[in-house]
Amino acid sequence: MDFEIPKEVETIRKSIREFIHEHVIPLEKFYDYEKGRMPEALNQEARAKVKASGFWTPHLPKSEGGLGLDLIGTCIIFSEIGRSPIAPYIFNCDAPDEGNMHLLSLAATEKQKELILHPLIKGELRTAFAMTEPSPGAGSDPSLLQTNAEKVGDKYILNGHKWYCTGANGAKYLIVMAKVNGSFRKTTMFLVPTDAKGYKMVREIELMGSHGPGGHCELTFENVEVPEDMVLGRIGEGFRLSQERLGPARLTHCMRWTGMARRALLIAREYAKEREVFSAKIAEHQGIQWMFAECATAIEMGFLLTLKSAWMLQKGLDARQETSMAKWKVSEALCNTIDTAIQICGGKGYSRDLPLELFYRDARAARIADGPSEVHKMVIGRNFISNKWEF
Ligand SMILES: Cc1cc2nc3c(=O)[nH]c(=O)nc-3n(C[C@H](O)[C@H](O)[C@H](O)COP(=O)(O)OP(=O)(O)OC[C@H]3O[C@@H](n4cnc5c(N)ncnc54)[C@H](O)[C@@H]3O)c2cc1C
């Protein structure tokens, strides 16, 4: 085991940390609480600065304009970018586009790459991933999938109802999971342009956290015609590809969430070292020291699980169990840390004078999206009991 951060990654990490400090965190004060998102003009200005600095889409190979990092290097860099909730979009490595880039580069044809992936990498368009459906459809349990694509001649006719499709408002293309001819075994991903006839973005769902540039949307598909050449991968490959997408995408969530948890704890440390109560700084009270100890250790444990999963994926090993462990533990560490940081900062923590209240609302989704904690725990436990996974 080698815990040393490679020199070149350390250099990039320092530069990105400085960039975030100088150019991104100062923008947070312009966050529009009414609309639950950043003004897009400011995002675009900051994106231009990132491009000029050479940090754009940092996770991609150099040949595609990225930094050529391996997955461990990506862990280190994304955990810096995650320090600000507005930074991942500014660096073009936010969900869902970052996961969609990975999926498209694995499964898209040259023509599909030309149409969607290359402009996505350049930041010229956005995409969204539509899997979840309202009850009685697929959510925690993908076997409940209802959306269906019927093969008619050389086309597929898509009908269905999706929701929680992050970024769909204003996206140019959607990746839609659907059964084929009613067969669950034939579940497939389809690339659907958002100007397709019969597609409707019903609404952006009102929710407790940020909306990002394209919200979290409810969508309907009524007899949407999808030509054969807009099938992503092959018929029946939907679930295999979704595993290819969701595994690394869960990990990149963990990397960004680590950054947010670290920053929350640093904000609390700053307050605790300044503010005096009962004749001592808050940080001098042992009860507070234990809070810092618990949070710092939980963050570090989660990050180590994330690094181990990244290392396994890099080696081509099956990292599903470790990724579930990381997703569960990092999301819980994130929520607990922000809650503790608010407690340590008292009334100020609860106010919008500090960003913790926004972090708190944003972070709550981490324990639900990309598989609720309970589902990951079920999978981890089952794998252990059935000897599918060993220490
Ligand atoms: C902010 C946000 C963004 C999202 N973005 C996307 C996106 O871009 N694309 C997309 O397709 N989806 C997206 N989702 C949807 C997300 O993946 C689902 O919400 C998640 O998979 C859970 O499905 P569900 O909401 O239908 O919950 P349900 O399936 O209704 O489950 C509800 C609860 O039941 C419990 N539960 C479920 N199964 C078990 C079990 N086996 N044992 C014990 N308890 C259990 C859990 O506590 C779970 O939270 C997003 C969700 C959020 C909140």
UniProtKB/TrEMBL annotation:
The keyword DNA-binding does not apply. One of its GO terms (molecular function) is flavin adenine dinucleotide binding. Keywords: FAD, Flavoprotein, Oxidoreductase. Residues 7-124 form the Acyl-CoA dehydrogenase/oxidase N-terminal domain. Its cofactor is FAD. Pfam families: Acyl-CoA_dh_1, Acyl-CoA_dh_M, Acyl-CoA_dh_N. Residues 236-383 form the Acyl-CoA dehydrogenase/oxidase C-terminal domain. One of its GO terms (cellular component) is cytoplasm. The keyword Phosphoprotein does not apply. GO terms for biological process: fatty acid beta-oxidation using acyl-CoA dehydrogenase. Residues 128-224 form the Acyl-CoA oxidase/dehydrogenase middle domain. Belongs to the acyl-CoA dehydrogenase family. Homodimer. PANTHER family: ACYL-COA DEHYDROGENASE FAMILY MEMBER 11, MEDIUM-CHAIN SPECIFIC ACYL-COA DEHYDROGENASE, MITOCHONDRIAL-RELATED. This is Carnitine metabolism acyl-CoA dehydrogenase. It comes from Leptospira ryugenii.
